[in-house]
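Case study.
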Amino acid sequence: MTFNRRKFIKTSVVTAAALSAPAVLADGHGKPRVVVIGGGAGGATAARYLAKDSKGALDVTLVEPSRSYYTCFFSNLYIGGFRTIDSLAHSYGTLAAEYGVNVVHDWAVDVDRDAKTVTLAGGSTLSYDKLVLSPGIDFVDGAVEGWDLSTQNAMPHAYKGGSQTELLKAQIEAMPEGGTYAMVAPPNPYRCPPGPYERVSMVAHVLKAKNPTAKILIADPKEKFSKMALFQEGWGDNYAGMIDWIGSDFGGGDVSVDPANMTLTIDGEETPVDVCNVIPAMKAGKIADMAGVTDGNWAPVNAIDMSTKADADVYVLGDASQQGDMPKSGFSANSQAKVCANAIRGALTGSKVFPAKFSNTCWSLIDTDNGVKVGATYEATDEKIAKVDGFISATGEDGATRKATYEESIGWYAGITSDMFG
Amino acid sequence: MTLKGLAPIALLAGLVASASLAEPLGDARAGEAVFRKCKSCHQVGDGASNRVGPHLNGVFGRRAGGLEGFAYSKSMTRAGVDGTIWEVRTLDAFLENPKSLVSGTKMNFRGLKSAEDRSNVIAYLRDFSDNPANIPEASPTATPEVTLSPEVLALVGDPEYGEYLSSDCLTCHQSDGGDAGIPSITNWPEEDFVLAMHAYRQKLRPHPVMQMMAGRLSDEEIAALAAYFKDLE
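After joint prediction, the assembly is written out as follows.
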């Protein structure tokens, strides 16, 4: 479009449909084509909504290497013994069969933005009119001294769903009596802000039952963290004396690890550990970098439709995007995907484009039937996705409220996974 | 959307708007007559016990679903956990249309459409509750002032916009109607839906996530959602 789309959508939703004839129709190749890379909370949702709402007017291809997708959200509950690993697995069968999404199980290895093509590891090439990247996160090289991907089995990150999560759980359960589980927590910004601390809660829950003299040590480069008061209250009430959190004030950011000898050094002091869960600094999944839409570690996007600052035909969703105030979470990615799908469909088919509205809620489990949550709503401004309103669970809530919050999170899991996968 | 569908809001708004803080309760004697409609399920007074419904002694200031030994619906229990306390404004909204305040209540009663009947029966029930003594100015008998203008009630929603907005609901509410942990919102009558959204926006219904989600919906957007849900098969 040649006019100022951002302003136009903001000021005139109702007339938009009347004025905008299909602005970008596929030239000479039939239906407009949308390629979505990454089948998680952002990509699967975008593919489903694009296919569902365009009712066959768009050719939607989803590129995702895994046939079974393991959600990273709720993986801590698997570690705590509250979910089975199988209950976190989802297939793409319904997206293909019921919504007509062309699901390709392959790796995207290159993007040519001039030719508007995506190259797959298998050698084939996909052409697109609009490209959606939802690749999640990768780790920053050299972020934790002594750790790299080749040592991830000795010291798992378990910060992508699936086998890493299973490995970490097995290591925790094999800890010697009175042993030490250590976590190297990541610096901001990172996927799932309360995630490391919910994980500590779940590890403590397991150890309290099976290995009550074991210790948990957290080296953290931050001074404070998400839901800090709620977690610290919960740790004191349920796991007294077990958890030692070392923030940046006490050298928690000055760490190195030795995976061969299983030691962790914090602020010059070396400690032997039995399990070392290293969650390094993060960056956008690699394909975003290959597509040339990142600036530093993340891909800056326009809040109105999640299109990248670098290319109006390339969109980035979820953790990989740099959008403003929203936390990097599955809920956020799902919310952004729906705004993005609405905008892409409008651009390619002339359907109405409605104002961007975003929301997020993150539930965390502290102990059995003890759930807490934090959430907010967001809107698109010229500069960023900006927070409108929010809430957080209170410290000292009664047991019935905490139980209801936990049950709500189970309902949400069923809701969002059905919203992603159909 | 039809005006007919929105009639309950007009009633609610009319009543709530007129019931300012110092408004006296209704006529308890007239309320005793209205209570005959409730008697087949609810007892109140000396020796009252739980029957099909819970006894209503001391209902004022009680948490919804808060009587021990009575098997409430999941929905009523959840309303109590979320913070619903029985007081004039919540009882009034509940008695007008039980399912608009507590979607899955087992109370199989269509509601009292007359604001006067509700006010009277609430006054009658008030006589069987001890707290507080200083009625009607203080909570739980005080009511806040809320208004909905006729222009708002006459809004015609855009179902296509409603469909887009509804995607925000489906991150948590399951599209197949499952209600584990989070209530189902499928096959919901339009008027109940509109009432519920306004009740959250006015913080009459208590849940913090829903107050936040409904709180940012404009009147037009609530109308759009209602129009979409109305036509959903």
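Observations recorded in class. The domain at 141-280 of chain A is CATH 3.50.50.60 (FAD/NAD(P)-binding domain). Residues 1-26 of chain A have pLDDT under 50 and may be disordered. We will return to this complex in the next lecture.
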